[in-house]
Each structure stands twice: as structure tokens, then as C-alpha cells.
Design goal:
Layout (H helix, E strand, L loop, with lengths): L2 H12 L6 E6 L6 E6 L14
Antiparallel strand pairs: 1-2
Length: 52
């Protein structure tokens, strides 16, 4: 692979967003809290979208 193609692919890879962290969902009716961790998987294409 030539250097220009490699540099282009590397830059494209860096632009892919990854979602990781901890989310919390609170049930306002009964006060229960659901906590889940999000972490990137082997292939960045299968990441879960952020919950708003």
C-alpha cells in the first residue's frame, strides 16, 4: 500500500465517531434507575448511537 493511500485511510478512520461511556435512564413513575455502559466493539460500524 502506498503512503498516500495509507494516510488517506488513516484519516478516514480517525473521523469515525465512537460512542462510549455510561448512560442512566430513570423511571419517573417508580424511581428505578437503569445504568448501562457503552463501549466500542471490534468494528466501529456496530456502535450504538447515543441516547438523548
Amino acid at each position: 500500500m502506498d503512503k498516500n493511500k495509507r494516510k488517506e485511510l488513516l484519516e478516514e478512520y480517525k473521523q469515525i465517531k465512537t460512542y462510549m461511556g455510561i448512560i442512566q435512564i430513570t423511571n419517573k413513575t417508580n424511581g428505578k434507575i437503569y445504568v448501562e455502559k457503552l463501549q466500542p466493539y471490534g468494528d466501529r460500524g456496530y456502535n450504538r448511537p447515543p441516547m438523548n
